[in-house]
Structures are given as structure tokens and as C-alpha cells.
TrEMBL record:
It holds the Pfam family Fervidolysin_NPro-like. This is Peptidase S8 and S53 subtilisin kexin sedolisin. Belongs to the peptidase S8 family. The keyword Protease applies. Residues 21-93 form the Fervidolysin-like N-terminal prodomain domain. Keywords: Hydrolase, Protease, Serine protease.
Length: 653
């Protein structure tokens, strides 16, 4: 008699889906681990549902899948995917929205919002024509025929993939025209603020007169999906996207006046797209969001590697709707729905006002274009540092928050920033963490890449961390002080569940000056599940005892066509198998299979395990005990019983 137990391996928790954030029902973004064979992933089974692969995203080993599911069923399938150990991450295809509050056009005077950031004086220093900068606007598309955009537009692309509501009758194509039914021309409004033709005796002025505009459509009628936005971001930065011609005009500055109410930690596909765009030198400016809440709860506003911009009104105060908090870098004019608004281009030949953080962000994108036009060698770290150093800080009362820091460095000052470019760049330090939000079980640890951007100094940076869970000690590799441009920070979860804000501080001494910076990481520690969810119930697991008659010169088997079936529920159960032959054989090879998707085949999405010793499939005799088997999700690389038998020419069942 052989006896032992069979149990389901607990899987490391991945970030769960945000419970309230809007997403496309039935659509999931899945990134697989490097060892997985991508050829096997055209179809994906999970929780008894067959998912169809829609397309490969620009990110490595990342696909968009679709099935006909409601919201509840989508989340159930997602939970099953997140438990698979071949999945690097899985999350819904979140919806992102333009961050504007539309209103009827009623204002045609731009002076209030341009004078607020010192633009008339800045234009005396630089108009953006010295070394024209390419600025991409990822939004709802452009109205190419608008006279104030004549001669300004580079060949863009339409990444909005849902032909049903795009208004142009097809999906992705090389025409980024705003064709959305009933469009409010949000994308054209943002585009005009960045760089409408200026000093031409017509319409409105753009912030950067000489900037070249790269229109990239990823929204329609004010919304779009994370999958489309992530691809659009890669393309705008000059990176390849499957099925799309390469961008011949990579953007130095990218404006994304869009977002959704989901933390960036729940949208790793977006963070990865930001990371690779940053690696190409692109400066990414994003709207903070219009919900009067913490900007860190929105994406991309809460992501690392972006310049997050909140909105002010004509009185110089934080606008009533503007998000706030530690992720705000700068403020810029956004107006109020019931007051003075930002005026820019709308439909062809038309102009009007809008209010929102969508309107604030392109002010900053335009100022960055002015700065890089004046100094083409300007790095992202130097530019952001200059903008923060020269910004006019808002008081706590102006920010309408307990702390003025909730409005970042303050209101951007274009004149002061450009004037500072006339002097040697100040020594500055910028720290950024990727990821900047983690979710770990107690006892786990994770690694974060800490980027160190120095301006005008090369000395080592001393690093420290505060705010970590009690009893844990974060460590850096290479250790502090760090002479390189990055280091890996290892964070331990400890044993006390809760939410922690880790503050990473850096300090360097150069030329008698102390240069300091900090960045923050949100760590959520939770108790690991004591049992897997119902989808991983041990019940109906089949245990096979295949007899090995001889091993040489060829393997000869007597197959088990009547496996032992587990009837107990839960995550672990004992088993026994009596009346096994003891003569004329070498021993038994034992395997266990749970047909999760109930299709009668040992395939991905199911649970399977061999009895192994030292990692190798073991052969045991009929009097063996403590033959314990661990069930794990089947990967494309897993040697299941069916694969093993097919390799030797045996029938599996």
C-alpha cells in the first residue's frame, strides 16, 4: 500500500484589481514570465473560461485577452490568472479618461493663464524656435485642418482600437484625426495650448511657438483603454509596437492629459511603458486628475517617472477639482468650470475655454519645450529640478490643504526657469523608485530600482530609508554611499500588516554644498491567505500510479487507467492505494491532476504535480509511505503525465 498526502501550493499574491476602477468587461492584460513559450498562448484557459488573444502589446511578453464576460466574471478569471506561477502580472484593461471639465466656449482671452506663469516675459528669452522640440500629445486626436495648427503637425498615429465607437469606421491606422461622434475636441484643445501657431495674427497663442506637434490618438469621446495608451506611449517615444510602422519623429516631451481612478501599483503595464519611454529620454507630463483626492490614487498621475501637474484657477489657488498630495510635482493654470477657463483651439477654425488638470499639463509640456529649445542638452532630471526650484510655492491656504506640499513645488514660472538656463546649471539630485508601490504578504521581500539623477556633480550619494515596518532593515545593492546612477533597494514586509510610507532620502556634498532629495514608496503588507480560494479546491483530484516494468534498454510501463480520486474538500487531503502489485516491476511513478477547466486534458490552467525526490520524478515501491505531492498550476513548460506518455508513444488515458 502506498500512502501520503496531496496539497495545493499557495501562490505569491499579485496586486489585485482595484475594486471600483472602471475597466473594459471581459478584457485582461497579462504578462508572462520569461520561461513561458509564447507560441502556446494564442488561447488561455482560466477558471473554466477560454480567453482569446487579441494582440501582443508593445511590452515584452504582454498580451491583451478577451472573453464575453461581465465585471464579476472578469474579476473571477483575473483572480485565477494571478495565482498562476507562469504569470508575471495580470490586470483588467482599465479605462482612462480625458481630465477636463467641458463647458460651452465663452472666453477668448488667454492672458490670465499665460501671465500667471510669466509667459510673456519668457517669450522675450525663448519662443521655442531656436531648436524646435517635438512634443507628442497622447489624447483624443487632432483637427488637422485647424488654421492655428497649420504647418505644426508631424505624421501621427491612431492607436484607438475599438472601431465601433471611433467614428472613423476602423481601428488603428495612420490618421490621428479626432473623428469621435459628438467630440468636445479635448485633444485639439490640449494640442493648441502646447504649440498653436503664434504671432500669426490668428486665433490663440501656444506656449512654445516653435514646437513640432506629434498627434497620437488613444482616446475617443473622452475615454480609452490602458492597452491602447501604453502602446501609444511607447510609439511616441520611438519604441516599436507590433503591427505599427515605426515613429520617425520620437518625442522629447510627451503630454498625457488623461487618467483613471486606479493606483499605478494595480496597472504595471502602464508603469512599464513609462519606464521604457523614460529610458529613451522622453519627459512625460501628466494631468493629476479632477476628483479633489490624492493624486497617488490615479494613473498615470501616481506612477513613477512622470511630471504630475495639478491645476490652479485665475485667483492663483488650487482649482476646486484638482487632485493633490505627495505625487504632485507642479501646478499650472487649469481654470474653473464656472469661472475663467483655459482658452485654446477646438473644432476647425473654432476656439473656446475648458477647465481641468488636462488644461494645466500642456502648459508645463510647452514650458519644457521652450527650455529644451534653448538648451537641447537639457536632461529630464535637470529640467524637472529647474522647474521645481523656480516655481512659485503656494501657501497652505492657496492649496486649500493642511500642507502647502500637497501642491508640490508650486506654480510653474516659465520666465524664471528660462532665466536660470542662462546661468550654469545648479547642482541638483533627483531620486525615483520603480515600482513606487508594493503589495506583499507578511514575511516576503521585494526589490525596487532606485534611480539617481545628478546634475552638475558626480559625488557619491548617501542613502537612507525611514518608515519601514518594525523589525525590518532595508538594504541597498550597491550599498550606500552610491557612486552609480542606480541601486537596488530590498524591502522586507515584516510581520505586521498595514500600509507604510517609506521615505528614501539621498544626500551628497559637492563644492561645499549639500544636495538633497527624497522619494517615497508605498508598501502594503497583508497576511497571506491561509487557504487558496474555492477555485483551487482539492476535491476531484486524480492520483495516478503508473507501474514501471523496466527502465532499460527502454522504459516499459503498465498505465493506471483507474486513478484514485480525492473526495475531500479543502486544500490538502490524505490518500492511500492498496492492492498494488509487488512483482515483476521496478516501482511506481505517481502523479496528481486537478482538471480545473473541466476539459479532460492536462493543460494550462489546471493543477498538476509529480512525486519528486531532489527535483526528479521518483519511482517508489508499493510499501512506501509519506509520498506527498504538491499541486501547482500547469505552465507551457510543465512536464505533465500526458506529455510524458505522448513522448514515449503511450495513450494518456
Amino acid at each position: 500500500m502506498i500512502s501520503g498526502s496531496v496539497r495545493i501550493a499557495l501562490q505569491t499574491a499579485l496586486p489585485s484589481a482595484d475594486p471600483v476602477a472602471p475597466f473594459v468587461e471581459g478584457e485582461l492584460i497579462v504578462q508572462f514570465k520569461p520561461q513561458v513559450s509564447l507560441q502556446s498562448l494564442g488561447r488561455l484557459s482560466a477558471a473554466g473560461v477560454e480567453l482569446q488573444q487579441v494582440r501582443l502589446l508593445g511590452l515584452e511578453r504582454t498580451f491583451l485577452y478577451r472573453a464575453s464576460l461581465n465585471r464579476t466574471d472578469t474579476l473571477a478569471v483575473l483572480a485565477e490568472l494571478q495565482r498562476r506561477n507562469d504569470v508575471a502580472f495580470a490586470h483588467p484593461n482599465y479605462l482612462l479618461f480625458s481630465q477636463a471639465t467641458p463647458n460651452d466656449p465663452q472666453y477668448n482671452n488667454q492672458r490670465w493663464h499665460y501671465e500667471a506663469i510669466g509667459l510673456p516675459q519668457a517669450w522675450d528669452i525663448e519662443t521655442g524656435s531656436s531648436n524646435p522640440v517635438t512634443v507628442a500629445v497622447i489624447d483624443g486626436g487632432v483637427v488637422a485642418g485647424h488654421p492655428d495648427l497649420a504647418g505644426k503637425l508631424l505624421p501621427g498615429y491612431d492607436f484607438y482600437s475599438n472601431a465601433a465607437d471611433s467614428g472613423d469606421g476602423d481601428g488603428r491606422d495612420n490618421n490621428p484625426e479626432d473623428t469621435a461622434p459628438g467630440s468636445d475636441y479635448h485633444g485639439n484643445h490640449v494640442t493648441g495650448t502646447v504649440a498653436a501657431a503664434t504671432n500669426n495674427g490668428l486665433g490663440v497663442a501656444g506656449v512654445s511657438w516653435g514646437a513640432r506637434l506629434l498627434p497620437v490618438r488613444a482616446l475617443s469621446a473622452g475615454s480609452g483603454t490602458l492597452a491602447d495608451v501604453a502602446d501609444a506611449l511607447r510609439w511616441a517615444a520611438g519604441l516599436s509596437v507590433a503591427g505599427v510602422p515605426d515613429n520617425q519623429n520620437p518625442a522629447q516631451v510627451i503630454n498625457m492629459s488623461l487618467g483613471g481612478p486606479v493606483p499605478c501599483s494595480h496597472a504595471p503595464a502602464l508603469q512599464q511603458a513609462i519606464n521604457v519611454a523614460n529610458s529613451r529620454g522622453a519627459i512625460i507630463v501628466v494631468a493629476a486628475g479632477n476628483s479633489n483626492v490624492e493624486a497617488s490614487t490615479f494613473s498615470p498621475a501616481g506612477c513613477s517617472g512622470v511630471v504630475t501637474v495639478g491645476a490652479t484657477n485665475a485667483e492663483g489657488n488650487r482649482a476646486s477639482y484638482s487632485n493633490y498630495g505627495s505625487r504632485i510635482d507642479l501646478m499650472a493654470p487649469g481654470g474653473e468650470p464656472g469661472g475663467l477657463q483655459v482658452v485654446s483651439t477646438l473644432a476647425s477654425g473654432q476656439y473656446g475655454g475648458k477647465a481641468g488638470t488636462s488644461m494645466a499639463a500642456p502648459h508645463v509640456a510647452g514650458v519644457l519645450a521652450l527650455m529644451k529649445s534653448k538648451k537641447p542638452s537639457l536632461t529630464a532630471a535637470e529640467a524637472i529640478s529647474l522647474l521645481k526650484e523656480t516655481a512659485r510655492r503656494l501657501s497652505a491656504a492657496q492649496c486649500n490643504r493642511p500642507s502647502a506640499g500637497d501642491c508640490g513645488a508650486g506654480l510653474v514660472d516659465a520666465r524664471a526657469a528660462l532665466q536660470r538656463l542662462n546661468t550654469p546649471p545648479p547642482r541638483s539630485l533627483v531620486l525615483s523608485a520603480s515600482p513606487n508601490a508594493l503589495s506583499l504578504n507578511t514575511g516576503q521581500s521585494a526589490q525596487v530600482t532606485l534611480s539617481i539623477a545628478r546634475t552638475n556633480f558626480t559625488e557619491a550619494v548617501a542613502l537612507s530609508v525611514t518608515g519601514q515596518p518594525a523589525g525590518t532593515t532595508p538594504s541597498f545593492n550597491p550599498p550606500s554611499p552610491v557612486t552609480k546612477d542606480s541601486t537596488t533597494l530590498t524591502i522586507q514586509a515584516g510581520n505586521n500588516p498595514g500600509t507604510y510610507t517609506l521615505v528614501v532620502r539621498g544626500s551628497a556634498s559637492a563644492g561645499g554644498q549639500t544636495i538633497e532629495a527624497e522619494t517615497r514608496i508605498t508598501l502594503t503588507v497583508q497576511q497571506p491567505p491561509t487557504t487558496p480560494p474555492p477555485a483551487q479546491n482539492i476535491q476531484n483530484t486524480r492520483i495516478y500510479f503508473d507501474a514501471v516494468l523496466r527502465e532499460t534498454p527502454t522504459l516499459s510501463l503498465l498505465l493506471d487507467f483507474n486513478p484514485t480520486t480525492i473526495t475531500q474538500t479543502g486544500t490538502q487531503a490524505p490518500y492511500t492505494r492498496a492492492n498494488l502489485s509487488t512483482t515483476g516491476l521496478v516501482g511506481y511513478r505517481i502523479s496528481a491532476w486537478k482538471d480545473v477547466n473541466n476539459n479532460g486534458t492536462q493543460d494550462e490552467g489546471d493543477l498538476f504535480g509529480w512525486y519528486r525526490v531532489g527535483g526528479q520524478i521518483a519511482t517508489v515501491m508499493p510499501d512506501a509511505s509519506n509520498i506527498n505531492i504538491v499541486l501547482e498550476p500547469i505552465l507551457s513548460t510543465t512536464l505533465t503525465r500526458e506529455k510524458w506518455l505522448r513522448q514515449m508513444g503511450y495513450p494518456a488515458r
